[in-house]
Amino acid sequence: MAPTSLDRYDDALAALDPDEGELESTELVVTDDVLVKAFALGPGAELEAHEHGDSTNVFHVLEGTVTVIQDDEHEQIEAPGTVLHERGVAHGAKNETDETVVFTASLCPLPS
Q1: Which of 86, 41, 87 is nearest to 66 (CA)?
Q2: pTM for this model (two decimals)
């Protein structure tokens, strides 16, 4: 039997390679009560601001520096970094650098 890994990060991110202006994503964990997605933003790419009325969302910045949008605020967060988005708070992300930015977003509980 081949060895297996509990780590879902390396294999998932190997497939993400966005071009300039592109956003790519993949689901790392999906259960009945939590979703974890990985996002890769090429230079100039943006994850449009949105909100989750019944869920908390947490960004974990893994590679690069991302500009996090939260309501009307914009803040550059450098890896490693963690940003909490409370329920109902509009949030998004922009890559204003020349390098690819990688972060995960954890959402829980899942909206009904």
Answers
A1: 41
A2: 0.90
d(CA 19, CA 76): 21
pLDDT digits (tens, 9 = 90+) for 53-63: 999 999 999 99
Alpha helices in the chain (DSSP H): 9-14
Q: How far apart are alpha carbons 23 and 3 in whole angstroms?
A: 32
Give the per-residue pLDDT at 5: 66
Q: Which residues contact 88 (CB under 8 A, 6 or more apart)?
A: 51, 52, 53
From the CB of residue 66, how many other CB atoms can be counted at a distance below 10 Å? 28
Give the integer Cα–Cα distance in Å for 4 and 2: 6
